Automatic annotation (TrEMBL):
Species annotation: Pyrobaculum ferrireducens
Domain HTH iclR-type: 55-96
Name of the featured protein: Transcriptional regulator, TrmB
Classification via InterPro entries: ArsR-like_HTH, Tscrpt_reg_IclR_N, WH-like_DNA-bd_sf, WH_DNA-bd_sf
Length: 118
């Protein structure tokens, strides 16, 4: 009986955590849609690798916020390849990576033209 109660409590806690994570992601999406994630795809720097440009285009199409795992599936990339590309983009000021429990949320940080100037 105690095991059943513990199982119900664990499932409830998981449901609450999932809801809270979705609420935060919705907030990030709303911020991105209000202009924080504008990007001019045509103005992407030519010295960026094609992979990096593909990631930025995908983020721009998705209102500037995606889970790292979604990017990996969408572009068909190995985890390590995507991690290295996102690290480059983060260091270049193009994206921000926020940890959400076991997942990473990738956020288009600023317009590409601003990042190019730095």
């Amino acid at each position: 009986m105690l095991e059943l109660v513990l199982l119900v409590v664990q499932i409830s806690a998981l449901a609450v955590a999932t809801y809270a994570g979705r609420a935060r992601l919705k907030k990030l999406l709303n911020e991105a849609q209000n202009g924080n994630a504008a990007i001019q795809v045509d103005e992407l720097r030519d010295d960026l690798p094609e992979l990096d440009r593909s990631i930025l285009r995908l983020l721009a199409e998705r209102q500037g916020v995606m889970y790292q795992s979604e990017i990996m599936k969408e572009l068909g990339l190995p985890k390590s390849t995507l991690h290295k590309a996102l690290r480059r983009l983060s260091e270049g000021g193009y994206v921000e990576i926020q940890k959400r429990g076991r997942f990473n949320v990738v956020i288009l940080k600023k317009p590409t033209s601003e990042a190019s100037a730095t």
